[in-house]
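Reviewer comment 2.1 asked that we show a complete input and output for one of the modelled complexes. We chose the 1-O-alpha-D-glucopyranosyl-D-fructose case, as it is the one discussed in the main text.
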Amino acid sequence: MVKRWIKGGLRGALRVARPLLLAGAAITVGPAHADPAQQGAIPWWQSAVVYQVYPRSFADSNGDGVGDLNGITRHLDYLKRLGVTVVWLSPHFDSPNVDNGYDIRDYRKVLAQFGTMADFDHMLAAMHARGIRLIIDLVVNHTSDQHAWFRKAVADPASPEHDYYIWRPAKPDGTPPNNAPSFFGGSAWSHAGAGNDEYLHYFARQQPDLNWDNPAVRREVYDVMRFWLDKGVSGFRMDVIPLISKDPAFPDLTAQQLADPAAAYAHGPQTHAYLGEMNREVLSHYDTMTVGEAIGIGDNEDALFTAPARHELNMIFHFDASNVDRDGWRPRAWTLPELKARYDHLYAALGDDGWTATFLGNHDKPRAVSHFGNDDPRWRVLSAKALATMSLLQRGTPFIFQGDELGMTNFPFNAIGQFDDISARNLWHDEVDGGHVTAAEMLAILRKTSRDNARTPMQWSADAGAGFTTGHPWLAVNPNHTAINAAVEARDPASVLNFYRRLIALRGRAPVLVRGDYHDIAPENPDVYAFTRNAGDDHALVVVNFATHPAEVALPAGIRLKNRLIDSGGGLPAPVGARTIHLQPWEASVYRF
Ligand code: TEU
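Response of the prediction step:
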């Protein structure tokens, strides 16, 4: 083990209280922390395994039905045992929670329901004591409409804060300045204050977009970043970061653009200038990890954000693969070759030096096993393991969404009243109340696609409240928590949880699974996803059967199988030198070759 000082920690040392400093400034970490300049070394953010905590739903320590920071601190040994090295914390800031914290009222204050700044400091120190780093959510495309800046902006159009936001006059006929839609329904423009001006909000009207063209806004954002970095956080997941720059002319979107507004919004003129400035001003002074939520960005544009020489971000989330079953808000049928093609396209665009983030789910997606696997009790465990094998061993830094390591499933929603999410409720309002879609059809769609599927409380135990809370949970606990929970799975060697632990450990032992290139060896195979990872003389083969029937994959010449490294618990290993691998339903294996 190598012990190193983190640049930010050292800087923070001058500013934070000494007891915190002792626990927070030095992190004991594995070989990944070796000097990246050293030949062959892998930067820590590449060998990291990240775990996303959605604080509202992770663990409630005080019985109010809402998860909190002390709840997270309580479960750090669980995360340590899982093997994750970084936690991404979804927004923990003061917020009116119109969009569950993605509408921030005060960037320097912890949401009261989640605890205090002292709880935050304590949590961070406890993470560092376990060699776990923390990255936090940077939500700076927009603020809450209750942020002091927006309140001043509305109250006084002559105030400096007015220019922190984006205002344009309504058209003479009273219609919005242009036809831009909000992601949460309706126009992206709303009226506020005196006069004729409307403000821009790509999300809810309670989430006004910041005016990044105003240097004062950028300075404020950089100060917020330094505030948290100086506390010892190790970086940021950047919410909808490609959206920060806007074309000030605000032309109407074309019909084609209206079909995919994210793509239209993601290509503002100054995005890269601003990210470069952010890196120069802030990130380059700390040892950080950054991951951009790159909605609207094509695979081919990845390098603009992540090429090391450009000094912007380390990696971005691409959504093409995870959206394979979606056409806007409507589900669409998909095939495995189609899913593989989306990954293959991304990796081809990235090239052998590019880097990305791999993931199956997050707080905006349905549950991974219900989404890409099969949550029927016959296949749930197997398919959750198969998906984990795919996602943790693809090339990139893997992100695990809380509960996916248990194979948690979608929730059996059967009424609109059970949904909390503003996007589900607004969609219902527009489409069902608007008379375009029947209630039954929309319910069937939301049951599959709703973001609330991922947001139900973490299932720690079979107790009432799932061990998440002793009170009344803010969102219903999935009734299947009596069977699917961390306590049961910790004891069961064949559980999804124990498989994740082994898989993460394997990734940690085998550098080829981190740094190796990626090559799909059977893109047309309708059942099996088979890809190699290669680094010098080190070669690994990952095979995953996506079918509920046995399937096989023929190996190209040049692959001479050696030992099997891990298997999700199905068939016997293929013999050394075999030309074909036979897989049981939803079986996943990894071989050396
Ligand atoms: O999400 C960005 C985004 O556009 C989608 O995830 C979108 O919310 C979804 O497709 C609509 O159904 C980020 C956050 O992850 C999300 O939770 C926030 O709601 C959004 O930004 C606004 O901050």
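The domain at 45-142+215-241+271-457+473-487 is CATH 3.20.20.80 (TIM Barrel). We note this here for comparison with the apo prediction described in Section 3.2.
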